[in-house]
Amino acid sequence: MQLKDKDYSFQSVPQASRNSFMKMLVVMLGLTFYSASMWAGGSLGEGMTFKQTLGAILAGNIILGVFTGALGYIAAKTGLSTHLLAQYSFGVKGAYISSFMLSATQIGWFGVGLGMFAYPVHKLTGLPLVGIVIVTGILMTATAYFGMKALTILSFIAVPAIAILGSFSATKAIGDMGGLNELFAYTPDSSLSLAAALTITIGSFISAGTLTPDFARYAKSGKHAVSTTVIAFFLGNSLMFLFGVIGVIATGHNDISDVMLSQGLLLPAILVLGLNIWTTNDNSLYASGLGFATMFKKPKVFMVMLNGTIGTVFAIVLYNNFTSWLTFLGSTLPAIGSIIIVDYYFIKKRQYIKYEIANIQNVHTPAVIAWGIGVISGLTLPGISSLNTLVITGIVYFAAVKIMKTSPVSEIIEEEEVYYANVG
């Protein structure tokens, strides 16, 4: 008997439950409105001219757009989450590797996000730190509990608010430094190579981008999934990077909320910081709930509540001690996306057996081997680590499948019942 829940954790999303283009766009924009992208943009601004940062941001988001767009198309065509898609290449039990890595890192970042909001608000208002963590943790967990509908409503509120208030602040910062001419005339004290800049630009979001199918599966068509995902990266992610770049160049701050504080905009700063982290944290909690629901065969809403509680309880510890470890774990995730892409487009030629009638073996060895080699290559080889991981993982997986001649998925064939009539 197949498990079912209202969030389609164990099955494909039916067409009747898919979302419109606009709803998908705001959800994907909410996913890309990510504070870490502002910090990454600030890192570019510390080592490149403004014109150079524009080139690095454009090139990085082209690569991210291709990667996430390819995953989004697969999700819309199959209606499946990242975790169910991974079963087609890793096997049912083999996909537990990807589900655990994806989900554990998202719980960790949920806790870190709570700390990112609580510490500045505590400093500004004097409110108890633990109290802020608990209240915001409950609120963020509550919206994730209600699933895609709540994420859509939150994104409709947060996306325009962040874009408008952030753009106002960034424009004011440019004006205060002397205008666009001064911005383009800026020369940094240190230098950053293009390879290093692309590593920062791509690496800042490619791990979260691997989770694109968890949201894009609700798109009505592959065209909607690809277009909303690509637009989100070129608008949303680029905007976050630009906020960080402009903030560092104009004020020395890489977070737009800090820029607002320096401008005396206290309430807008808290609002933008809160909404920015809220959209990111809800996406993290939603995705982690799907992953652990698949592993433990429990409803997603139960896993969201459990994950939200864990992230809230350990938020301060995670924020102060585990960001580097979470960044390392995040570096293992792009290999999962690479394997899904290669399996769907190049091995199966865009022809997946429908999940509800697919017989999937427990472990598919080529995927496990390719994932391990890809992760190691990304951590050890010179160049752009995320690209190294993507390319080498994909090549190794394709070669291993062809050499080992394996296929982990077959169609379930129901036995026909034959009735014999009595004769004579």
Quick recap of the structure?
With 424 residues, the protein is mainly α. It has helices at 21-32, 35-45, 50-78, 82-90, 95-125, 129-145, 148-177, 180-185, 194-203, 206-209, 213-216, 222-251, 256-262, 266-296, 300-313, 315-321, 323-330, 334-347, 365-380, 385-404; strands at residues 358-360, 409-411. The chain is 73% helix and 1% strand.
What does this structure look like?
The protein is an all-alpha fold. The protein is built from 20 helices and two strands. The chain is 73% helix and 1% strand. It has a two-stranded antiparallel ribbon.
- Give the helix proportion (percent range): over 70%
State Rg.
22 Å
Number of strands: 2
Q: List the total number of helices.
A: 20
How is the biggest beta sheet arranged? 2 strands, antiparallel
Quaternary organization: single chain
Question: Helix-strand pattern, N to C?
Answer: HHHHHHHHHHHHHHHHHHEHHE
In terms of topology, how is this protein built?
Layout: H1 21-32, H2 35-45, H3 50-78, H4 82-90, H5 95-125, H6 129-145, H7 148-177, H8 180-185, H9 194-203, H10 206-209, H11 213-216, H12 222-251, H13 256-262, H14 266-296, H15 300-313, H16 315-321, H17 323-330, H18 334-347, E1 358-360, H19 365-380, H20 385-404, E2 409-411
Antiparallel strand pairs: 1-2
